[in-house]
Design a protein that fits this description.
Elements lengths: L2 H22 L10 H4 L10 H35 L11 H14 L11 H21 L8 H24 L3 H12 L8 H27 L3 H6 L4 H23 L5 H13 L3 H25 L8 H20 L1
Amino acid sequence: MTLQRRFIRTVAGFGALTVITLVIAPLVGPTSIDLRRAFDFSIPFTDNVDAQIFFVARLPRTLAGACVGALFASAGVVFQGLLRNPLATPFTLGVSTGAALGAVLAITFNWSVSLIGISAVPVAAFVGSLVAVGIVYALAQARHRGLSTTVLLLAGVTMNAFFSAMILFVQYFASFADTYRTLRWLMGDLDVSSYQPLLAALPTTIVAFAVFGWLARPLNLLSLGADSAESRGLDVTRAQRAAFFSASLATGAAVSIGGPIGFVGIIIPHLVRLLVGPDHRLVLPSAALFGAAFLVGCDLVARTVLAPVEVPVGVVTAMLGGPFFLWLLVRRS
């Protein structure tokens, strides 16, 4: 079968799964709704409870889950390809921890900066991710003309530990209420009730996915090693920089919307590779689609399994991802 036919079949299959999940998720919840009444625009929105539940409580949350899941899964694929490490995740290089530090600072010190209707927390989280990206990148190329993936990995792990320590330091000065808010945010939550966070993250998301589309072939070559990739005409340094910055931007955007939701960036890439093979031209789009469907499904479980109590979606992904991660370690040992 040609690559084009495999690509069409793969994208169609995962795309159908994603569409089905996106259609079903807003219809399911602890409160049943009348879909016909929800789309009856002759009823004033303020009097239409069904429309409020669908368009305010559930649809933004579903779209946020799809966006965050696609970003984390795609970033996981790119980081694994860049570092040539099957256990690399969007959390490996400290980007998400830097974003978490920014969010914790905003929560603890009650920053009230508002941008086009967005609270200070996601803004601070995205800025924190950019600071982490800048520091890790500067360290990785400080003594190299190109980008040393070994130093990149070591710098990322070090900054991850440093930012985690800073989070604990900031929490020491927080009130009990702020500590509770911080803990809930750090668990990862898709409690999104408006479209502004999605619109704010849209430009970054578009840029990241545009670069991901170009990276498919370079990642295939990088998997052979830098020397082999360069001998085949690839500008290795350019490809590494594009992979690092695009995956970091995707991670920062995802964390700013839903918090540091773990394990999506490692579960989905490996499951997709088991289904479609190692070719990044198939893995990248498949991971984005499957990641979207997976996180929306996890969020559906999180808000219905113990209804009316909502479990943070990060807890659900961790409960699924922890055993999978251990299985992966044993399988590769």
